[in-house]
């Protein structure tokens, strides 16, 4: 029970720090990077997650991964698209959710509650956090 409460607290905090978003773009490399990042997150693939993160966000990505270690996770209905840019970051909005299952109980983590910050470095699009 204590692990579940800690997980809910951590995931709620992540959702509070973010804002709303939308749908998909198959020719959108920033959106594809976020979708790959989310797939690595639910697959609990630390190596891929690190490779899909910019250096400044890598520790944050691994903290997100740690928060999901004790639950089964899967993506549901995920579609992402670039929303805006500020010159440094491309902001990517997603629809769908991460479903976290603990003791046969699903908790949906709404992905539309945040915009992912993506940066292009040397032709690669890397996730650098969210807002």
User: What level of helicity do the residues show?
Assistant: 25-40%
Average predicted local confidence, pLDDT: 84
- The CATH architecture is Roll
Distance between the termini: 30 Å
How many DSSP E strands? Answer: 5
Q: What is the CATH C level class, in words?
A: Alpha Beta
Percent of residues in β-strands: 35-45%
Uncertain runs are 1-25
Structure described in brief:
Helices cover 35% and strands 36% of the residues. The chain has 131 residues and is α+β, with helices and mostly antiparallel strands.
Structure notes:
The model is unreliable at 1-25 (pLDDT under 50). This protein has a single domain (2-130), classed as Nuclear Transport Factor 2, Chain: A (Roll). The chain has 4 helices and 5 strands; from the N terminus they run ααααβββββ. The protein is globular, with a radius of gyration of 14 Å. The protein has 131 residues and is of the alpha+beta class. A hairpin with a 2-residue loop joins strand 4 (115-121) and strand 5. Helix content is 35%, strand content 36%.
């Amino acid at each position: 029970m204590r692990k579940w409460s800690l997980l809910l607290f951590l995931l709620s905090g992540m959702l509070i720090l973010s804002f709303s978003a939308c749908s998909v773009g198959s020719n959108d490399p920033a959106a594809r990077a976020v979708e790959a990042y989310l797939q690595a997150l639910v697959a609990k693939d630390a190596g891929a997650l690190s490779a899909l993160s910019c250096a400044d966000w890598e520790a944050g990505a691994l903290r997100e991964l740690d928060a999901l270690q004790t639950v089964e996770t899967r993506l549901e209905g995920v579609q992402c698209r670039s929303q805006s840019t500020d010159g440094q970051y491309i902001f990517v909005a997603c629809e769908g959710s991460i479903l976290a299952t603990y003791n046969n109980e699903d908790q949906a983590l709404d992905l539309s509650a945040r915009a992912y910050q993506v940066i292009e470095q040397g032709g690669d699009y890397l996730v650098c956090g969210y807002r």
